[in-house]
């Protein structure tokens, strides 16, 4: 049983139009570290989702009519409540998602930062005047909320992926319906309970749980929804984009990645190893921006591999609530199978296991943090996102060669490289076909920078002052007869 300072945060009902709603059927939420049931949530479908959308549409006129400062004050209260309940929220997250408590606590702080940021950015949605071509006219450009928004969020960051969307939406004057992942709905429900406590009006923010197909289908096709935002796989994103086409919705998509992590011969190897640990093994490798392909110059390949293996060997695997644990379980058995498939394929084609390589003795969905050597572009791990604690090491000889290999993917979310030569830093940063580039760092996510990708890794940006633009539309007013 979860030990919370505020047990009322463990909600097992959905939140629609300011009311906590149950259903006849439910979905069990289990702890991936133990297999035990943490709770259950309603199995809702299209009808309940439609009710939430209609409530959001009813709440929209009054919410958008409030001043940006008034909306900001309510968001600020929500931000403060998120931080005041940081430990409880982190316990709920670790119980349903598995990540170490310290990481979960960090995510709650990260999630709250988006509410704080957009509470302020909402007051800085500026328009402009444009010199008219005719003397008796004036051209004025204003920005307005797009309207009712829908958000579909993943299980790997169950708090931050909601606030990155709800923060700018509510700050801009939009209302929102959120569909969290079925594996991790309890974090979302706890957060919306705090939003209610902060005074966010009924209908402005609703959370529905249940059938992904039924709820997603309604969110993507209902004409009242003017904007759909999604974080998840490219495959599902492609489907959702197709479903929104009939009603011409505005969309933002943060989709799959296949991030390269490049170590040049002049890199600080200790710093590069530290960055690789943070980028590759955070959340047991279950992040869309984690290093998926590690390219190491042949001159430093063996030295880097030795240092990386030593660091990986020191990572403690276990239940996220235990002290010192750095690697929790994978989300489910299917995730374990995919990691195994990538390792088996690589070994069959000549790769060597330097560390790990198999399921952990703890059982459940725990997997040993793994390092592979002698990996080549013909292996599955070079083309597919592993989403697990597997670091494959590729060799390269020249800058041109490694940039070509790094760009040889349909994805373009995050990329990383370590180098000291200033000319190389500029050249490689410009040549990498990615929405984000980390230079001499493995951690690039924060609320003030624009997060997003190119190619089939998505459209739109989250965070930064650009993030609110995805929830606004431009209106041009021509005033004549002056």
From TrEMBL:
A biological process term (GO) from this entry: gamma-aminobutyric acid catabolic process
One term of GO molecular function: succinate-semialdehyde dehydrogenase (NAD+) activity
GO cellular component, one term: cytosol
Pfam family, one: Aldedh
Active site positions, chain numbering: 254
Keyword tags: Oxidoreductase
PROSITE patterns noted in UniProt: ALDEHYDE_DEHYDR_CYS (PS00070), ALDEHYDE_DEHYDR_GLU (PS00687)
Family note: Belongs to the aldehyde dehydrogenase family.
Name this protein carries in UniProt: NADP-dependent succinate-semialdehyde dehydrogenase
Species: Cupriavidus basilensis
Gene: gabD
């Amino acid at each position: 049983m979860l030990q919370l300072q505020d047990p009322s945060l463990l909600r097992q009902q959905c939140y629609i139009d300011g009311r906590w709603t149950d259903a006849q059927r439910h979905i069990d939420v289990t702890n991936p570290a133990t297999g035990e049931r943490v709770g259950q949530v309603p199995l809702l479908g299209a009808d309940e989702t439609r009710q939430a959308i209609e409530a959001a549409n009813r709440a929209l006129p009054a919410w958008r009519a409030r001043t940006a400062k008034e909306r900001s004050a309510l968001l600020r209260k929500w931000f403060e409540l998120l931080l005041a309940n940081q430990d409880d929220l982190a316990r709920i997250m670790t119980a349903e998602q598995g990540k170490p408590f310290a990481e979960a606590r960090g995510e709650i702080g990260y999630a709250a930062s988006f509410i704080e940021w957009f509470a302020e950015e909402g007051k800085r949605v500026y328009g402009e005047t444009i010199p008219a071509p005719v003397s008796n006219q004036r051209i004025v450009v204003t920005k307005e909320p797009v309207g009712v928004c829908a958000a579909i969020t993943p299980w790997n960051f169950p708090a931050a992926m909601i606030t990155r969307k709800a923060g700018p939406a509510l700050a801009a004057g939009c209302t929102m319906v959120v569909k969290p992942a079925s594996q991790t709905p309890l974090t979302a429900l706890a957060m919306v309970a705090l939003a209610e406590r902060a005074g966010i009006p009924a209908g402005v923010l609703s959370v529905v749980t249940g059938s992904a197909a039924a709820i997603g289908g309604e969110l993507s096709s209902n004409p009242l929804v003017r904007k759909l935002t999604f974080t998840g796989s490219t495959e599902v994103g492609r489907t959702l984009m197709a479903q929104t086409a009939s009603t011409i919705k505005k969309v933002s998509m943060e989709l799959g990645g296949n991030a390269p992590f490049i170590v040049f011969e002049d890199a600080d190897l200790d710093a590069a190893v530290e960055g690789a640990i943070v980028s590759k093994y955070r959340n047991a490798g279950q992040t869309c921006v984690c290093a998926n392909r590690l390219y190491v110059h042949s001159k430093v390949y063996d030295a880097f591999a030795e240092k990386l293996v030593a660091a990986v060997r020191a990572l403690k695997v276990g239940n996220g609530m235990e002290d010192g644990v750095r690697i929790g379980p994978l989300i489910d058995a299917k995730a374990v199978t995919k990691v195994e498939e990538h390792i088996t394929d690589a070994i069959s084609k000549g790769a060597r296991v330097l560390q790990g390589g198999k399921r952990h003795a703890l059982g459940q969905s725990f997997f040993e943090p793994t390092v592979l050597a002698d990996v080549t572009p013909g292996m599955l791990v070079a083309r597919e996102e592993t989403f697990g604690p597997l670091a494959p090491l590729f060799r390269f000889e020249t800058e041109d060669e490694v940039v070509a290999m790094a760009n040889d993917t349909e994805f373009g979310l995050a990329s990383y490289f370590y180098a000291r030569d200033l000319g190389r830093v500029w050249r490689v940063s410009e040549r990498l076909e990615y929405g984000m580039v980390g230079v001499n760092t493995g951690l690039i996510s924060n609320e003030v920078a624009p997060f997003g990708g190119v190619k089939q890794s998505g459209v739109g940006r989250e965070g930064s002052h650009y993030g609110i633009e995805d929830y606004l539309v431009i209106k041009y007013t021509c005033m004549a007869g002056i």
